[in-house]
Amino acid sequence: MKYTLSVAMGPLEHLTGLARTAEEVGFDSIALPDSLFYMEKQAADYPYTPDGSRMWNADTPWVDPLIAAASMGAATSTLRFYTNVMKLGSRNPLLLARQVGSVANLTNNRFGFGVGIGWAPEEFEWCGVPFAKRGARVDEMIEVLKLVLGGGMVEFHGEFYDFERLQMSPAPSEPVPFYVGGHTPVALKRAARVGDGWTSAMMTCAQLGETVTALNKLRAEYGRAGEPFEFQAVCIDKFDLDGHRELAAAGITDNIVIPWMLEGLGFDAPLEKKQDSLKRFADTYIHSGWQD
């Protein structure tokens, strides 16, 4: 099982230092969250809390995850990065293709594209994109992104996007993996059909195990059972070594963690305390030999 560090909702000036330390102590990746803006009034419930409220406020710091990946990639050499997840629905696929391809090239293929639709109508409407038909639009966006990132002269003629022959150079020298987020049946089908992996929001180990089983069944139905596939998880109830063993046994391949939050330090803890927390976590889990 891999270990990924989430850097959600922390000060932006900590990012480079955390990336260097994460690489030094043996983390595989960094997961980068996405938020465009904070609307004072929300038209829809946030889907990953019991009461629909957001876990952040207007002053919570965010950074564009693609810019963050390029910045942190320049400070590291082996650490990978992936968006967790970027909300595609309010964005343009050709602009995104240029950005994603740039990050993949600048990091020497150390980037994976975690994608979702987006839950907030405001992020769509205020960016000039209708909230209606968002799922179908994102499906087409993924087609466009993969086509353009694959390199060469391409064209596309769909329901939502239409363009004649074009080429973006340089194309990434390796395919950019796509990790699909979401918990709904439609999202799971999307992950099984077009994804190189699935990424969760906050779930229990039991819920994760059920989802892994469902995804493997869907992948078999789509004829993809033999292809590599990542199961990236944020687990909310398994934190010790036995719990990590349970996650691995459930099929989780990538455990997304925030070590300083597990120690009660908070999102805005000093950088040095976060770095110390990373070292303790690595000694306890990454280098403990439990997977040998």
Structure overview:
The model has no long low-confidence stretch (mean pLDDT about 95). Helix content is about 40%, strand content about 15%. Helix 1 runs parallel beside helix 10. The strands form two sheets. It has an eight-stranded parallel β-barrel with strand order 1-2-3-5-8-9-10-11, surrounded by five helices. Strands 6-7 form a two-stranded antiparallel ribbon. It has a single domain, classed as Alpha-Beta Barrel (TIM Barrel), CATH 3.20.20.30.
Please give the structural blueprint.
Blueprint lengths: L1 E5 L8 H11 L3 E4 L32 H10 L5 E4 L2 E2 L5 H14 L4 E6 L4 H5 L8 H16 L4 E4 L4 E5 L11 E4 L3 H10 L2 E7 L1 H17 L8 E6 L5 H9 L4 E4 L1 H4 L8 H16 L6
Helix pairs in contact: 1-2, 1-10, 2-3, 3-5, 6-7
Bin the helical content: 25-40%
CATH class, anyone? Answer: Alpha Beta
Total number of beta strands: 11
Structural class, judged by helices and strands?
alpha/beta
> Tell me about the biggest sheet?
8 strands, parallel, barrel
Instruction: Indicate the low-confidence ranges by residue numbers.
Output: none
Distance between the termini: 11 Å
- By oligomeric state, this entry counts as single chain
Annotation field: number of helices: 10
